[in-house]
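Usage

Read records sequentially. Each one opens with the input sequence:
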Amino acid sequence: MSEPRDRIDDWLNRETEPLPPPAGTFERISRRARRRKARRAALSAAGVAVVIGVAAAVPGIVSAVHGGAGQPAAPEAANSPRATAQPTARGQGTGGVSSQSSSPVGSESPPASLLNQSDPVPANFQPTSVTFIGLNTGAVIGQAGTTGHCASPFCTSLAGTTDYGQKWFGVSAPRTGAPEGSSGVGQLRFLDTHDGWAFGPQLWVTDDGGAGWKQEPTHGMRVTDLETAGNRAFALFASCTGSGPEFGAHCSGFSLYTSEAGSDQWRRVPGPTANLPQAATGQPGSASLVLAGSHGYLLAPSGEVFSGPLTGAAWTIADVQAPCAPGPPGPGGQPTGALLAAGSGQLILVCSSTTSAAGDTQTKIVMQSSNGGTTWSTAGDAPLAGIATSVAAAQGNLVVLATDSGLYLSGNGGTSWRLAEKGPAGATAGMRGFSYVGMTSNANGVALPADASLGEVFITTDGGSSWRPYSVS
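and closes with the structure output:
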């Protein structure tokens, strides 16, 4: 008869299976490995030489690791799948471990992101820019909380949503202030749930959904516009001298730059957009950038229209003179004389000219182009009421115009219009109406009140026919 076995020995000798790693671990490791490999390759190609400079004739940004040919790496396929692992703070010390969007001074809460939706939104959130990814996920940027009681000396904050603005959660923000001359940011664009950019006039980037932010060098230039599509961001850089919140005023030397998602390198798009022609009057002006489908469109200060692919290749001239030029910049650096939008296979251009002495009416002519801006035709006149601030277009000849008196809707490409939404109730006198409108699908759209202190984002789900305010806080 055999001796009884020790229970501990029996447990120790039992065959076991190791636990699998957390979901997304292998994808996250692969993604970081690819980036380390790309950086090492770039260092090798440059002879481990670090060069930072500005071109003499044209304002420019040279990568911190400057390759010999200066050509971008082959882009990933558009809409390529991405890992959805929870983000971790990057080691740049910018926006990590202490989220000024949701934590008081001295707190050490983990970084919040579009993928980590557990933090609350701070009180007194004042959104100045909104961006959406797909049908439901989006984010806003603005000032929030109370000065002196934020998680850093700055109160710049982000909030995210996964139900198209009905509910919001806190997201970590860049550690910088509101636009003030050459510093701060007030605009936001996300390409996907990982890659995003905060800009105007500075430029900050995140590749983990907002958990960590890094400031990108602009070498004295200011970013006045930025849009994302495919796997890239495109931005307008300019030499500006505007002070205070008017960071986009008195700008010249506009150039179009591009950066691939996940990269810290920006380079000028080759061709004539590397040094945009100035306004015919010789006075500082503004420029407008629109990305749609597989192409981008740019309205230069001179009124020339440029178009090109979203691959980083050269853009070309589509029209030497559009029906109107952008004119002086408004808040946020956007044009006041011409508003550009794309939808339904055509470009929409709202040309604003004569403004009444009282400043509450304005002549607005709507132009259409079905061949990428090469030729234009008149669609109709937009309502005289209000000063135009932003325009959006979608399929089916849907056009929405934001003014300082309300939102106007056209279902026939700008030929006829109706008032869809009056200015927000409770808005401060002189700040009524809307500063921005955008359509993310044929049915869904978003608008921001001109009075950011309302803390609201207006949402439509019926193609702009009706709008409903949602509080970010």
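Summary fields computed downstream for this record:
- The helical segments are 7-12, 25-45.
- The radius of gyration is 24 Å.
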